[in-house]
Amino acid sequence: MPYQEDFAVEQFMDKYETSIVHNMGETCCYSLNLDEVYQLTGEKFSFDGTVRLTYGSIKGSEELRSLVAAMYSNESIKLTKDNVLITNGAIGANFLVNYTLVGPNDHVICVDPTYQQLNSVPKMFGADVDLLELKREDGWTPNLSNLEDLIKPNTKLVVINNPNNPLGSVIPTEQLKKVAALCKRHGIYVLSDEVYAPLFHSCSPPQSFCQLYSRGIITGSMSKAYSAAGLRLGWIVSQDVQLLKDAASRRDYNTISVSQVDDHIACYMLRNRKAILERNLKLCKENLETLESFVASSEGRFSFVVKPLGGAVCLVSVNGIEDTEKFCASLAEDYKVLCVPGEVFGRPGTIRIGYGNSAKDLENALPILQQAYDEWTIKVKISSL
Ligand SMILES: Cc1ncc(COP(=O)(O)O)c(C=O)c1O
């Protein structure tokens, strides 16, 4: 069996998610139900009762793939359903890209910090993985000369994440173009995990990487920006049709197809995506304002590692508490508030806060976070006397 690291963030969330009351561990925009989608859009969901519940379209329905292709097309790059493969979430999409491209003797470069799957899975497939550290002085985006220094003759794949989880930083188009040009010179594929796109609430939206490079592969899903993680539906988009064919033939072994009903709901929601995105961009913007005023009035207890420009999560320094893993465990167990400790991203002393959930949840949770901080620091002072 290949060596597999524990998936720290998912295991932490799984441990506490059902026992807490206020969820700031959530990474998705506040989940919708179908009645709410109807209220938002004026279109009622229906599923033809005479449709047989067969496997459906294996790669994803033509309508769904065409809707996804249209989201990533622009004046110069016209993508079609053949540029799209439907998967079980972005997590299935990321896995499948690695399964298709990466093996022993390959070298992969992955930004850090990021969602652990992006660097763990290539290792699982036997690749040698180097991390490209994101730094404050580069605006928490990939440093081109550091990236170039990491490239080896066997570098197969560069992995980026835009917007970034956990930082909420966004790589602008000009820099993406430079990454594309560098990787093109070396014949390297680029996987851009764009699962939080198009939640660009505090910056101008960059182009999708699949528009910038013929070997660019992006992954996305219904989970974050479209508030429908429960569909477990995602996609891979690329100009490289052969790569998608290779991915589809590997996918036969572990997916066959996604659920026909989920495919149908995803079509319904993406046909109406404008209204859903408006709701979610507003939600993120307003909740971020709440979070910003909380941080500003926290008298130095908390500070942003970086103010997020996109997505629905950010990393916050918990000043004076180094062991944030223990702090977050106590926060969940004793105060019923879920935040993810920075340790799962290799960043002790920080917590990841998801601000896309309901406004009420955030407003209720933040004062409890501050109370927990104060009680924790008093306890530490007393025990050191
Ligand atoms: C960067 C990133 N990629 C992929 C995923 C998986 O998303 P999905 O629900 O679409 O499988 C997540 C979930 O948190 C994520 O943060």
Automatic annotation (TrEMBL):
Q: Which Gene3D superfamilies match?
A: Aspartate Aminotransferase, domain 1, Type I PLP-dependent aspartate aminotransferase-like (Major domain)
Q: Which Pfam families match?
A: Aminotran_1_2
Alphabetically ordered keywords of this record: Pyridoxal phosphate
User: Has keyword Ligase?
Assistant: no
Q: State the InterPro entries in the record.
A: Aminotransferase_I/II_large (IPR004839), NHTrfase_class1_PyrdxlP-BS (IPR004838), PyrdxlP-dep_Trfase (IPR015424), PyrdxlP-dep_Trfase_major (IPR015421), PyrdxlP-dep_Trfase_small (IPR015422)
List the molecular function annotations (GO) for this entry.
catalytic activity; pyridoxal phosphate binding
Residues annotated as domain Aminotransferase class I/classII large: 48-366
**Similarity comment: family membership:** Belongs to the class-I pyridoxal-phosphate-dependent aminotransferase family.
**Protein's name in the database:** LAFE_0F12123g1_1
Which organism's genome codes for this protein? Answer: Lachancea fermentati
